[in-house]
Amino acid sequence: MRIGAISDLHIDRHPKLKSNVYLETLIKVVQHREIDLLLIAGDISNYFRDSYQFIKDLKTALHIPILFVPGNHDYWKAEDGTTSQDIYDFYRTKPECLLDHPYVINDNWAIVGHTAWYDYSYADKKFEETRLKKGKYYGATWQDKVKIDWDEDDTILSKKAAKHVKQALEQLQDKQIILMTHIVTHSKFVVPTPHRIFDFFNAFIGTSDFDRLYQQFPIKYSIMGHVHFRKSLVENNITFLCPCLGYKREWRTADIYSEMNHALIDFVIE
To answer: The organism sits in which domain of life (predicted)?
Structure first.
């Protein structure tokens, strides 16, 4: 089976291209690469109904399993008063969403997924947690602080996400695991420091709360997004993958097909 993975499509952020172009392009890339199962690691759009409609349209066109976890942008509250918790509950009911639905591929493999959440541990130690919580630095504001309205602190949400994933992993100990999160779960995938801005804003990129899970469970692949890097790393027999498409300004070329084909990673399991 050939599994493809991509993240951070941001189908509503291109200055010229509409979401249908993203859809048509991803369909072409997946078909050309002969992908049997597609994973999307979050940040599809800034509006949850558009994000899920994109998943449904992909599934209809490709006739293969499409699985996703929401990213932080996918939780941004809506103008109609829909809260981030409402959106979380919406995603949980969807069969394509991995939040409460680990996916068993076969006798040997399963997929476990969660958004995860950031715990501030990747920020420079010179910043106190009370300052990080405000999400403001050098005149910039981390937009989740404005557009997400969770009732709990980020550090608590991070621990809860790790606990949620651990419970799923405990039910699948006879399987090799593909873990998919949106938030970064390995310190080598944050923005390199020292950095004038990301010494601070790396606080909102990743979490250390998953570290023990990699030691305790047979995770073979770990897919993440959020940081808008395209990077892979093999460490302790685990392949870490960050297949972000990202914003148009971050692309190497102006061609969406080339960028999407470059961002999407694939690997084969038996």
So the answer is: Bacteria
Length of the chain: 270
Region of 8 please: left (phi>0), alpha (psi -120 to 50) or beta: left
Mean pLDDT, residues 126-153: 96
Please name which of 122, 148, 146, 130 lies closest in space to residue 201, comparing C-alpha atoms: 122
* CA atoms within 13 A of residue 90's CA, in its CB half-sphere: 19
Q: Which two tokens stand for residue 63?
A: 């006739």
Classify residue 66 by burial, with Cβ atoms within 10 Å: 0-12, 13-18, 19+: buried
For the segment 183-230, what is each residue's pLDDT rounded down to a tens digit?
Answer: 999 999 999 999 999 999 999 999 999 999 999 999 999 999 999 999
Domains defined for the chain, CATH in brackets: 2-268 (3.60.21.10)
Give the pLDDT score at 267: 98
SS (H, E, C) the chain: CEEEEEECCCCCCCCCCCHHHHHHHHHHHHHHHCCCEEEECCCCCCCHHHHHHHHHHHHHHHCCCEEECCCCHHHCCCCCCCCHHHHHHHHHCCCCECCCCCEECCCCEEEEEECCCCCCCCCCCCCCHHHHHHCEECCEECCHHHHCCCCCCHHHHHHHHHHHHHHHHHCCCCCEEEEEECCECCHHHCCCCCCCCHHHHHHHCECCCCHHHHHHCCEEEEECCCCCCEEEEEECCEEEEEEECCCHHHCCCCCHHHHHHHHCEEEECC
Which whole number is the average pLDDT over 99-113? 97
Instruction: Calculate mean pLDDT across residues 97-104.
Output: 96
Express each pLDDT in 34-67 by its tens digit. 999 999 999 999 999 999 999 999 999 999 999 9
Record the tokens describing residue 106, joined without a space. Answer: 């076969």
